[in-house]
Write the structure tokens for this entry.
Amino acid sequence: MEHVFVYTRKRREFGRPCHFSDRPAELIVDILPDAGLRAEFVERNPLPAQVQCGPEWSEHEVNTERLESEARGMNHVEGGWPKDINPLDMEQTMRYRKKVEKDEHYRSAIVRLGSIMEHYIKQNNAVDIYQEYFTEGQEEDDEEEEQEQPVARTISVFRDPGAVKRWVTALSWSPAGGCKLAAAYSCLDFQRAPPNMSYDSYIWDLENHSRPEMSLKPASPLVCLEYNPKDSHILLGGGYNGQIAYWDTRKGSHPVETSPIEVSHREPVYKVIWLQSKTGTEAFSGSTDGQVLWWDIRKLSEPTEKLVLDLSRKGDLGHALGCLSLEFETTMPTKFMVGTKQGLVVSCNRKAKTPAEKIVCTYSGHNGSIYALQRNPFFPKYFLTVAGWTARIWSEDVKESSIMSTRSDRVHLLDGCWSPVRPSVFFTVKMDGTLDVWDFLFNQKDPTLSLKVCDEALWSLRVQDNGHFLACGSQQGTTTLLEISSGLCTLQRNEKALASEMFERETKGAKILEEQQREIRLKERSRSEQSKEEERKESEKVERAKELLERAERHFFHMVEGGRMAAE
């Protein structure tokens, strides 16, 4: 049995300023002389002594920052948008903000303005007890930090409070600063769930790992769970029985609404994704039953749209591909991608007129189920897949094969994702409890950092938006929060340009190989056609020879028969 005790203190107690006061001297303690020591006193005569002609003086100077205060007013209105951007269109403004945030000069400008803002904040203190000394040595330390080895350290561990430990099947960071983490718990062993297993999933506060902040009580264990990017109080989850439900944390632990079982998925819902819409209430889900369903949480009585992942485009659920992962990029609202249980990535167009036209193309190359599928946040044309024993990077322009791939591992990879702040870094977790950090600009064959997180399989992985914290969920119900070193979560110099060059170079090489393979197939096809033509000609010759032989044989017997008749 584990005993955990947490010492808590209010946030305002940390870093409290010192309050000095002017008061007269105060006698705290008075120790009287010991009368028993008087008999041991020996008088010295004469006694040498030194006397100064005047008292000693010392001079001290203190120079503090001068405080000048004045009252000012500010009227803040939103503006500064380009002429081609409509401020009332949320999709255009969101796309423009992402474009600005990805600019290389954006971070340097924020750092420069942050130091100015810090200077004015410090002026509010009459006595600056937080003054930083030895700034010259700090610059040398910063240079050393840039060259430090990549590391990751465990911050805290959140354990499943239930008696029966379940798998952490999905994780989602709160959009409100990333101070909360939602975790979905379920047992994915078919018909092996213990009868006393809890159905609850939890929301954890990063400051308190001893107990969850809130419990979510679904009708069936949750396999996936996702925060609404526009409202940190709304969560959407998919259950093991195929139902979709959403929660409002302001209204309690029970779901606000749940989809009816007869219109829901027929198998577990492995992924739900929020769509970029004006209302912020639309989402879509994928399941291993071969369906992708679109929902509006204001009315979960039936899906708004349906797609059957049948490559024959007949809409037959018996031949549909099972969905294990989904990908949707807000800057590309008409496209979405599906990672299937059969190892195929299906690219779809949501705005197509008919369900048959919605399936655009497929990418094949994995031998196992695709557990993770995500586009690169800086270059959406390239996407990452994790399946079987490898992780692969693909380009939309090359459909025959991936442009980059990790070395085949000894154990299965179960999840993966890109770094939100570095275009060349991605993360993977494995069945033996290991977290691998890959930087393909540094090394493509081996991971930059490999960390043993726990002894059981890691099933889920999620990185915070600032790239500084990472959460891993295991098969025994433990969620480990890791802090990544600054080198792995800081955009390096010219990294975007170098990553773009490598993507283009690998794409060009893959296209050349694809063209060579196409030429080889054409040559083999022409050879096979030539061989078939030769075989046909040979067969014709044989048939002609047989026909001539039969004709000669008939003529011979006819002549023999004619000679016999003449003799008679």
